[in-house]
Amino acid sequence: MATSRESSLRSQDSKYDNPDPSAIPLWSHPDPRFAFPMVDMDPEGIVAETEYKHRGRIETAFHQTQTKLVIGGGLALVVLIFGIVLIASSVHTIEEGNVGIYYRLGSLQEFHSLPGVNWKAPFITTMEEVMVRPATDEIESVSAVTKDGIQISFFKIQVISNVEIDLLITLIKKFGIDFKRALIFDRISEELRTSCASQNIDEVYNSEFLKIAPTVKTNVETSIKRLGLDGIRILNLVIPKPDIPSDIAQNYKQVKVQWTEQLVATQQQKTESIKKETEALKAVADAERQKRVLTIDLEKKILQKETERNVSKINNEILKEQEENVARVENFKKKQAAEANQVLYSDNYVKLEMAKAISNNTKFYFSGDQSALGAIFNKILSN
User: Fold this and answer.
1) CA distance 41 to 29
2) Residue 26 near residue 59 (C-beta atoms within 8 A)
3) CA pseudo-torsion sign 333, 335, 338, 343
4) Is-contact 128 101, C-beta < 8 A?
5) Rounded CA gap, 157 and 240, in Å?
6) Dihedral through CA 60, CA 66, CA 70, CA 75, nearest 10?
7) Where are the beta strands (DSSP E) in 120-170?
8) Alpha-carbon distance values, 301 to 218, 281, 291, 292, 297 (Å)
9) Half-sphere exposure of residue 216, counting CA atoms within 13 Å on the CB side?
10) What is the pTM of this model?
11) 220 within 8 A of 190, measured Cβ to Cβ
12) Torsional sign, CA 304, 307, 313, 318
């Protein structure tokens, strides 16, 4: 009977299918000396059955504990994931040059956050970044009609603007997150169409083109002050030349070609005139140069003549002084001789000398007392 019960128990547990006696469970005891096979102690198999049931309860408790641990770990993992998601939904970073605005359950809040790490209420609050530093925006195209009915198009209009941070919330509440479109882009398009409608195609494309951008910019700034409390600043506006119909563009091209030819002809005339003026100026310069040369030569000759005259004058003065000195010497000699003769040629001396001369001559010819010689003799003899 014990053998049949043991066989039935072994059929329920694969561990008892091994015929090795060492695989038979031992009697549980703290001291291994008292451990012995249960088969020897329980020939009826009661102990083995009890042990088997006890092992089943232990395994069931182990499985239950393992299940609880898995469930507890899963709950902890869920809580951890929820915390991570909560933190990730609360913490956000705002880039430099932007500010953050917040919508709580769809309602725009009255504050904004600055660049850096910021917090918000998770799940019920959403955040939007708005650029407030100067940014370049581009309007793809604007169509307009001129005063004379020509349709033109402006492409890639560029505008640089920035937003006043203090008025950002007001602008968004009034015009939405895309407030630049309402205050800048649409206003530029409107002012550009108005400006083109008041001018003809030639004024828009040529003569008045450079005035369009400043006029549009001024009018848009006025609209921003009126509508947006001056919350946006337009720093620069660039409006390129419009695209005009091809036939008009071809006419402008022909006009420009003719204008270029006229410009070339005018330039050639100016060049010829400049050449002639240059030749005339060169001739005048040559004449002036020759004149200056002749003047210098004449001045040199005049200076030379004046020098010669001065030299001659000096020589004449020297000669005059010499001759005057000679004359004074001769005069002095004559005076001395005269004084000596006056003393020497006294009347008696003269009479004596005449008498000597007469005595030396044997013949005298005179014609009476009236002749010169007769007069002399009369005078001498009378004395």
Assistant:
1) 13
2) no
3) negative
4) yes
5) 7
6) 80
7) 125-131, 135-145, 151-163
8) 77, 29, 15, 14, 6
9) 30
10) 0.51
11) no
12) negative
CB 65 within 8 A of CB 74: no
Strands 107-113 and 116-119: unpaired
- DSSP secondary-structure letter at 369? T
Q: How far apart are the first and last CA of the chain?
A: 244
**Which one-letter amino acid corresponds to residue 103?**
Y
- Residue written as token pair 């002095």: 332
The number of angstroms, rounded, from the C-alpha of 96 to the middle of its chain's C-alpha atoms is 26
Sequence-ordered alpha helix ranges (H) in 148-227: 168-175, 179-180, 186-197, 201-202, 212-227
The crossing angle, in degrees rounded to 10, of helices 212-227 and 186-197 is: 130
Residue with tokens 């089943």: 56
* Tokens read off for 376: 């002399």
How far is Cα 310 from Cα 57, in angstroms, rounded to an integer?
A: 160
Give the distance, in angstroms, between the CA of residue 326 and the centroid of all CA atoms in the same chain.
96
What element of type H or E holds 330? helix 246-344
- The phi, psi pair for 119, rounded to 5°, reads -120, 155
Q: What are the backbone angles phi and psi of residue 24, rounded to the nearest 5°? A: -75, 135
Q: What is the pLDDT along the chain (383 residues), one digit of tens a residue?
A: 445 545 554 554 444 444 444 444 444 444 444 444 444 444 555 555 566 566 666 777 767 777 777 787 788 888 788 777 777 678 888 999 899 999 988 899 998 899 988 888 888 888 889 999 999 999 999 999 999 999 999 999 999 999 999 999 999 999 999 999 999 999 999 999 999 999 999 999 988 999 999 999 999 999 999 998 889 999 999 999 999 998 888 888 888 788 788 888 888 888 888 888 888 888 888 888 888 888 888 888 888 888 888 888 888 888 888 888 888 888 888 887 777 777 766 666 767 777 677 666 656 555 555 565 566 666 665 65
* 207: amino acid identity, one letter: S
* Sequence letter at residue 314: I
